[in-house]
Every structure is written in C-alpha cells, then in structure tokens.
Design brief:
This protein is an alpha+beta fold.
C-alpha cells in the first residue's frame, strides 16, 4: 500500500475515532478463524473509515489475507485499518435474489461467536436482537470507535456469551 494512502488513513482515524480495538494480526486471526465451511459466512456489510456509507459485500476468506491488508477482493485491496466495522447478518441474500427466500442461506453467527470466544477478545455488538427468544440476527465486529461506549457493546466475548447463551 502506498505510504500516502497509509498516512491518509492514519489522519482520518486519528481525527474521527478515540479508540482502536483491532490490529492487523487481530483481523487476520479473526478472518482465518471464521473461515470455516460449517459457518457459511459468505456475506457481510463493510464500513470503511474513509467512507460515510456501509456496503454489502462478500466476507473475506483466509486465502485473501496479506500481512497488512485484504488482497484482491471485491472492492479491491484494502488495509485492515481501513475497516471501521464488519457486520455479519444471520441470513445471506445473493444480489438480485433478496426477495427469493429459497436462494437465501443461514450464516451461523451464533457458532461464529463461540469461535471468537475461543481465540480472543473482540469488540462486538448485537443489532436487531430479540432478547426473550435469544434470536441473534446480526453481529458487528468493531475496529474503531468514537465517543463513549454504549450498553450494546461487550468488550469480552465470554461476558457476551454468558449474558445471551447461558440458558441453552
């Protein structure tokens, strides 16, 4: 990655965020650990620090990982530090088939949480959860954070699992 792009990202991160939770090695560890066929994690929303909008893309696989960036993938090579957050939805929906249920697939984010619990601590948040039935529809992995932490964030995956999966 050219030095000028790296410097630009550093300036954006310093200006917009108060905390960074992820390093290059932590992103590699996460993507490698979640690259399991049984999880069927193939689709996610990406939010980059230098873009105001998130976008739907493919979840990166371990063979696409370089030392400091994701290689030739979807939106082109990008540095790990460019990732503000990655959000994995429970249901994957291929482009053009969003309203065709038999084309959808389950992404096992509950088991993904168990995998993450075994390999380290990550800044996670649940979105669109239904606490009574313990239904988890989205998992967000946060890299950079701005401002005060909210109740929705759990800095320890063990605490998160205890809170949401203790009754199972």
């Amino acid at each position: 990655m050219p030095a000028r792009i790296d410097e630009k990202l550093d300036k954006i991160i310093k200006r917009r965020f108060t905390t960074s939770f992820m390093s290059n090695s932590k992103w590699r560890k996460l993507f490698t650990a979640l690259d399991l066929p049984e999880l069927m994690l193939n689709q996610c929303y990406w939010k980059f620090v230098d873009n105001e909008h998130d976008f739907l893309g493919w979840f990166t696989k371990s063979d696409e990982l370089m030392e400091k960036f994701v290689g030739d993938y979807g939106s082109g090579p990008f540095a790990f530090k460019r990732i503000e957050w990655v959000e994995i939805c429970k249901i994957g929906k291929p482009g053009g088939y969003e309203k065709v249920p038999f084309k959808h697939w389950d992404q096992n984010i509950k088991e993904a949480l168990n995998v993450l619990n075994k390999i380290g601590q990550f800044e996670l948040s649940l979105l669109n959860e239904v606490y009574v039935f313990m239904v988890l529809s989205k998992l967000r992995i946060t890299s950079h954070f701005k401002g005060q932490k909210t109740v929705g964030f759990c800095s320890c995956v063990a605490y998160f699992n205890q809170l949401f999966f203790a009754s199972e």
